[in-house]
Write a structure and sequence with these properties.
Number of strands: 23
CATH superfamily of the domain at 206-398 and 441-455 and 601-663: FAD/NAD(P)-binding domain
Number of helices: 21
Radius of gyration: 25 Å
Shape: globular
Strand content: 15-25%
Largest sheet: 8 strands, mixed
Helix content: 25-40%
CATH topology of the domain at 206-398 and 441-455 and 601-663: FAD/NAD(P)-binding domain
Bound molecules: flavin-adenine dinucleotide
Amino acid sequence: MGKKTLSRREFLSGSLAGLATAATAGLLAGCAGADNGETSAAGTGKETSAASTEKETAPEGKSVYIPGTYTGTATGLGAVTVTMTFSETAITDVIVDTSNETLELAINSASDFQSALMEAQSSEIDTISAATFTSDAVRKAAAQCIDQALGLAVKEEASASGNESGSAGYPSCEDLSGVNAATNQGDIAFVPEPIADSDIKETVSVDVLVCGQGPAGMAAALACAEKGLKVIALEKGSSPTWRSPTMGAFHDRIHRKFGVQFDTKQWLDDAMVNCAYRGEQAVYQKWIDTCDEAVDWFLDKLALNDDDYYLTFNAGDFPDFNAPYDELSLSRSWNTSINIPLVVEEIAATLQKRIVEAGAQVLFNTPVVQLVTEGDKVTGAIAKTDDGYIKYLTAKGVVLATGGYEFNPDKLNACCRPRDLALIGWMNGTKTNTGDGHEMAKAIGAMEDEYPHPLMLDPAQLMPYLRVNKRGLRFTAEYEAYNHLANAIQAQPGAFDYYIVDANCAEIVDKLWTPSSSCYGPKEVWIGAAMSPNAVTADTLEELARKMDVDPEAFTATIRRWNEMCDAGEDTDFHFPGSMMHKIDTAPFYATREMAEALCTAGGLQITPSSQVLDTDARPIAGLYAIGNVSGSMFSGTYPHNENCLSHSRCVTFGYNVAKTLAAL
Ligand SMILES: Cc1cc2nc3c(=O)[nH]c(=O)nc-3n(C[C@H](O)[C@H](O)[C@H](O)COP(=O)(O)OP(=O)(O)OC[C@H]3O[C@@H](n4cnc5c(N)ncnc54)[C@H](O)[C@@H]3O)c2cc1C
C-alpha cells in the first residue's frame, strides 16, 4: 500500500463542492420549483419549508416576491452593499456598491456583479477571479435582499448573525456582523414533541443502538459487535464520515516503532491549562490510560503493514523528528499524531466492512429523532424512515455519536461567542451534523458543557508566514499550533490579519514548517495560497500597506524591525524560531487577508469517564452514553490542536471503551 495523505484543503474542496449552499440557494430552488410547477423544494431545513409554504400559497408562476426595493450589507475587504428591486416574479434592478473595498479590482467590478446578479436572478453568482472576498460579500448581501423580498428577513438575520441580533447572548466588543459564518442550515432531525405510539410502524429490540457513523460511532458499533452484543447503528446521512487520516496516542505500536517516549503527566498539564481547568480531569486521564490499547485495536482493524505508518511530525520534511513535542513553539505541540496510509474513504469503507463482518447492522439515511425513556432511564430511541417511525428498544444502552452542530445556525449562535464564529468559513461538509444528539439528550434532562462552547479552529494559512493586524502590527509568534494561531487571529481588531510574503516565498518555504503542518499537503499549496490572486501585491511596502488599508508608517516599521531581527537571527519580540526567520525585502510583496477557519464544534454533553451522560444534577443517566463530538467534559475556550489528533483518538478510544462498559452490564 503506498503512502497517501489527504490534506485539509483537499478535503475542503471536496466537501464544499458537496455542500448544498446557503439557505438562499435552497429558497430560490424552492421558488424555481414553484415557477416550474415542480412538486418539491430543493434543499432541506426550515428555510426550505418557508419557501415551500410560499410555493403552496402562490399561484403557479406568480407572486414569488413582495415587490419593493431591499438592501443587504456584508463585509468583503470593507462593507459591500447590494440594493435590489423586485417585481412579484423577478429581480428587476440591482445596484452593487463596492466603493469601500480596498482592492482596485474589487471596486471596479461593481457593474460585473450587477450584470451577473441580474442574469442569475439569484444570489448564486460566480466568484470574480482575484476578488474572492468581495464576491462572497456580494453573494451574502444579495441573499439578504432576496430573503427580505421573500418575507424571511427577520428570521434570516437572526440566524445569520448572533452578534447583530443578540441571539447568542454574548455581547461582542466590536461589530463583527458580516463575518459571522454561522449560516449553513442542515436538516434538523430531532423531534421535540413526544411521538405517539400510534405513529410507530415497528418496534425492534437490540442490546445497543449506536446513533451516527463517524469515527466515534463506527468504533462503538464495531467494538460492541465484537463483544457479541446485538448492535444496530443508524446514520442520518447516506455514507459514513471520516475526515483526515490521522490518529493520536502515546505508546501505541507506531510510536513504539519510532521510539517516542512521552511524559503523559506533562501532556495532561498542557491539556488542563488549554481548557483552563474547566474540563473533567478524570475524562482526560481515562483517555491517557486507554488510548494506546484502543489505537492498537483500531490499527488491527485496518490490517496494514506497520512499516507503512509514519508519525505526522516525521512523515514530511523532518524524518528524524521523534521527540515527544516540538520545542520551537511557545506552547508544546505534541508528537502524538500517527499518519494512516489510507485516504479517508478507504478508512471508512474498511471499518464498515469490519462492522458488518462482526455482525452489526448499519442503516443509512435513518436519522434518530428522539430518545425513549422509562422513568429516569433511557430505554431506546426512535428513528425516522421513509416508511414511518421505528422504535428501537435497548437492553444495554443508546450510544450517541451524532457529532457536532456545525449546520445548526441557531444553536451555533446560542452556544458560541460571535468572535469564535467570525470565520472565513467551515471545513466541515457533514451537513447532517445539526446537534440532534445534543438536543435529544437535553430534552430528557441531560447537561451540556458550560457555554460558550469552543470550536476546532485552524488559521486559513497553515505556514508560519509573517502576520500583521489591521494596525500594521505583529501580534503573535506565527509559529504556533493551529488553534493558538487561529485564536490570536480572531482576537485582532476585525478578527482578521494579513500574512505577508515576498518574491522569495518559494525559496524560503523549505526552511519553514509549523507544528503538525507537515501532514497537510505539499508546501506548494501554501506557497500558491500566499501568492494567489487573492493576495494584494505591490512593488513597495508603502504601496502594499495602502492596498491593505493599513497605516504605511506602522507597517513599514514592523517590516523594518522584522528584517533587523532576521539579521540578528532572533525574534526578541514574539519568539518566532530564529532558524526559520526570513527577510521581507524582495519585490513584489504579497499580503493576503486571513481569518480563522472552523472544523467542528467542540462542546457537548457532560459525561463520566465511562461516557455515561450526566443530567443537570450531574448524575449519570442510566442507558445513555455519548462519545465523540456530541460528548463534552473536555474542552473550554479552545480545542487543543497542540495535543495533536486528540479528537479522532477520543472518538475511537471512547467508542472502544463504551463497548467494554456495555458488555459488562
Ligand atoms: C476538515 C477536517 C479535518 C479534520 N482533521 C482532523 C485531524 O487531523 N485529526 C483529528 O483528530 N480530528 C480532525 N478533525 C476533527 C474530527 O474529524 C472530528 O472531531 C470527528 O470526526 C468527530 O467524530 P464524531 O464521530 O464525533 O462525529 P462526526 O464525524 O461528525 O460524525 C457524526 C455522524 O453522526 C451522524 N448524525 C448526526 N445526527 C444524526 C442523527 N440524528 N441520527 C443518526 N446519525 C446522525 C452524522 O451524519 C455523522 O455521520 C477534522 C475535522 C474536519 C472537518
